[in-house]
Amino acid sequence: MATLQKSKTIIVSNRLPVRIVKEDDKLTFTPSEGGLATGLGSIYKQGDNIWLGWPGAVLSNKKEETKTENELKEQNMAPVFLTDEDIELYYEGFSNETLWPNFHYFNQFSEFKEEYWESYKKVNQKFADQILKNANPNDIIWIHDYQLLLLPAMIRAERPDISIGFFLHIPFPSYESFRLLPWRRELLVGMLGADFLGFHTYDDTRHFLSSVSRLAGVGNEHGNINYNNRQIMADALPMGIDYDKYAETAAAPETLEREVRYRTSIGTEKLILSIDRLDYSKGIPQRLRAFQKLLDRHPEYLEQVSMLMVVVPSRDQVGKYKELKEEIDLLVGRINGQYSRLSWTPIHYFYRSYPLHALSAFYRMAHVCLVSPMRDGMNLVCKEFIASKLDKKGVLVLSEMAGASKELSDALLVNPNNSEQMVEAIREALEMEESEQVQRMTVMQNTIKRYNIYSWVDLFMNRLEIVKKAQRSLTTKLLDDQSSQALNTTYKKSKKPLIFLDYDGTLKGFYGDPQAARPDPELYDIVNGLTKRAHVVIISGRDKETLGEWFKSSKVDLIGEHGVWLRAHKEEWHTITNLTDVWKASTREVLEGYVARTPGSFVEEKDYSLVWHYRKVETGLGELRTRELTSHLKYLASNQNLQVLEGDMVVEIKSTEINKGRAARNWMKRYEGADFIMAVGDDWTDEDTFKAMPKDAYTIKVGSSNSAAKFSVNGFEDVRALLKGMIG
Ligand code: GDG
Q: Distance from the CA of 686 to the CA of which of 179, 357, 473, 529 falls in 20 to 30 A?
């Protein structure tokens, strides 16, 4: 018997948490201590787990590569080697000059160059090859960030069942920004190779889902996407920091010693702290201008307040970053030139990075931490500031455009484009009573402490596992000869059998004209054959008139319009009580608007639902309109207890009170004591029926997608063959 290999976790990111320095042909390896590295340390350092990525230096020969490989292996890491050209085109090019600006809404900076794209694909494939060399089928792969958007699908193509998680550290932009990218669809399809996709905020998730709907034509239900017969989940999972590490560092003797030293050199004035990587998304010039305005407006702060501004060098090979650096230098120079006194400097500006204890001393010293990005996926600086405030004194001024603002509503929130508001917020922060500072800081510390980096990692892994479990539970088994014989035997032995049959796609194929799908003689023979022994219920989305007319001579029960109308054989139609249809008039108007713009489409009105049909619409246009119409309807439906169903070439809107499952349950009560229950259906409205069935029922899905049914068959012809076998 083959033994199952133990599962390991493979973390993948563009950069490894290590820095290689090459000096005189000698390589030195220093671990880098980013938040992600600390958080994921609990994973990748264990057992056979491994972190895969670029080690941060371009190596010149095989010998250096082998040395790097061996050295990293000791630390549970594996390198993906990149060339100078890869760095220029894939990293600085496509990642940082195309995706980064687009995802941060700086579209005027976004470069669309075919050679960047080609290199991006090539390097993603390089990562994929390296992973595939290392991965077993039951491993878990966790991919990070925008440099590797194509990677999930590249791995999926080779390993259809492997667990793949993806986390995006930067914002996912609105469809309106994302759609500008010439390679938008490929990028999205790349991401959809993952099983679980995590984003910092709900807005990012929502934007992603909207792009998936519009570009890949796939809707979602509460973040669950059914794509290529695989269930995928997208959700917001805000990243936290290692709270204890920052709190402990703030209490360390080295930090205190530094604080005393820095204070002695700077003086006693109140400090406004600003720390970022050099990046136009961080809003550094806007922040400087707001500070200048503050000094203009409030001369009482001259010599009383200074800004301590750390800008960490980053991507300075990219043109836009060089320009930004010059702009910042100029602004700082101008402000300091204008306001400095011999004994006071308005802005203490440092273009460099500091060791952790220095950073911690800055956090401790700051009265105000001014975090005002134009856009930021999350922003960890503001969280680190909060964790470092052991006495709970200090105020955070935070941009609404940072993901962190969603968790930190006790900060003074600002729109970084509104300089008046920024000035006012800084002033309010400088003047805030200590009791209020403590009150706000306490709430924020509690949040950050609880949702720390470790809980983030656990939650992510947990979510990924949940999706994989859901996928497994939805995998139906093809109804083979053995199972169909067992079904037959049970049926024949039963005394009170009950059979639910969907109509279109289950008993009959699809037709351009819905009325052309009327039952044929063979179908009547099958249904009438079954009703000799069984209660047969046709459970369909069709209107009651059509069903009534088609089955007027059969001994069947009918459930129409997905459960609105019910009729037992020889009885009258009745409906479930108290259904409202006041929403219909306004929704119909919206649908008519789409009909006017979409030749070939039409609206069908049922008693408690409206259906937009696009079967006869030009290929492509129908799908395009469906995406637009579905989001439009979902928006209208959100507070009206309505649901929007996408069927085969139709979009239907109806009350949430109605579904096939509810109707089926109703029918099972009516035939209590049924000793054989079977349900067959082909689309997702039948999933409600399957879910309503008792455990021992035979549930059969027509088609190959994931389903709550136990078995599947390929087409309506197979259903007919199965039913014929039951009669014979
Ligand atoms: C991306 C997203 C998201 C800064 N100066 C020094 C230093 N730092 C450290 C900070 C902080 C980190 O760098 C910066 O993290 P941010 O989150 O603020 O920003 P990005 O680098 O743009 O990160 C961002 C993040 O990914 C995580 O998902 O929050 O939105 O853009 O940890 O402390 N560290 C040291 N010396 C410095 O001088 N040692």
A: 529
Map residue 524 onto helix, strand or coil.
helix
Q: Report pLDDT for 476.
A: 76
Is the CB–ligand 1 distance for residue 149 below 6 Å? no
Tokens of residue 394, six digits:
């200090």
Dihedral over alpha carbons 603, 606, 608, 612 (to 10 degrees):
-20
Question: In what helix (H) or strand (E) does residue 669 lie, and over which residues does it extend?
Answer: helix 660-670
Reduced to 3 states, what is the DSSP secondary structure of residue 397?
Answer: strand
pLDDT of residue 324: 95
Please check whether residue 177 is in contact with residue 105, taking contact to mean a CB–CB distance below 8 angstroms: yes
The whole-model pTM stands at 0.81
CB 446 within 8 Å of CB 243: no
Q: How many residues does the structure list for the chain?
A: 728
- Tokens in use for 693? 């069935």
Strand partners of residue 12: 52, 143
Tell me the CA–centroid distance for residue 12 and ligand 1, in Å: 19
Q: Are 363 and 250 in contact (CB under 8 A)?
A: yes
The reply to whether ligand 1 has any atom less than 6 angstroms from the CB of 359 is yes
Q: Which amino acid is at 186?
A: E
The residue assigned the tokens 């005002």 is 372
19 lines ligand 1 (CB under 6 A): no
What band does 4 get if pLDDT is binned at 50, 70 and 90? low
Residue of 360, 379, 396 to test ligand 1 pocket, by largest number of atoms within 8 Å of CB: 379
Q: φ and ψ at 222, to 5 degrees?
A: 50, 45
Give residue 654's pLDDT: 85
Any bridge partners for residue 705, and if so which? none
CB 397, CB 426: distance < 8 Å = yes
Q: Which of 33, 254, 360, 378 for mutating ligand 1's site (highest number of atoms within 8 Å of CB)?
A: 378
CA 218 – CA 227 distance, rounded (Å): 7
The arithmetic mean of pLDDT across residues 475-485, rounded, is 86
Ligand 1 centroid, distance to 384 Cα (angstroms): 10
Structure tokens at 400: 């609404």
Say how many C-beta atoms besides its own lie within 10 A of residue 11's C-beta. Answer: 24
Compute CA distances 633 → 207, 578, 629, 642, whole Å: 17, 23, 6, 9
Look over the chain and give the mean of its residue pLDDT values, rounded to a whole number.
Answer: 92
What SS3 class is residue 538? strand
Would you tell me the crossing angle of helices 685-692 and 660-670 to the nearest 10 degrees?
A: 30
* 527 has a pLDDT exceeding 80: yes
| Angstrom distances, CA of residue 321 to CA of 92, 326, 348, 379, 397 | 11, 9, 21, 19, 25
First and final C-alpha spacing in the chain:
42
- The CA–CA distances, whole Å, from 556 to 215, 479, 522 equal 43, 25, 16
% residues pLDDT > 90 (the chain): 73
CA 34 to ligand 1: nearest atom:
32
| Catalytically annotated residues | 502
The answer to whether 204 and 175 have CB atoms below 8 angstroms apart is: no
- In whole angstroms, give the CA distance from residue 448 to residue 360: 17
Query: Are the C-beta atoms of 361 and 253 separated by less than 8 Å?
Result: no
In whole angstroms, what is the distance from residue 197 CA to residue 236 CA?
9
Q: Which of 146, 147, 212 is nearest to 175 (CA)?
A: 212
Residues 45/31, Cβ–Cβ less than 8 Å: no
Q: pLDDT tens digit string along 115-169?
A: 999 999 999 999 999 999 989 989 999 999 999 999 999 999 999 999 999 999 9
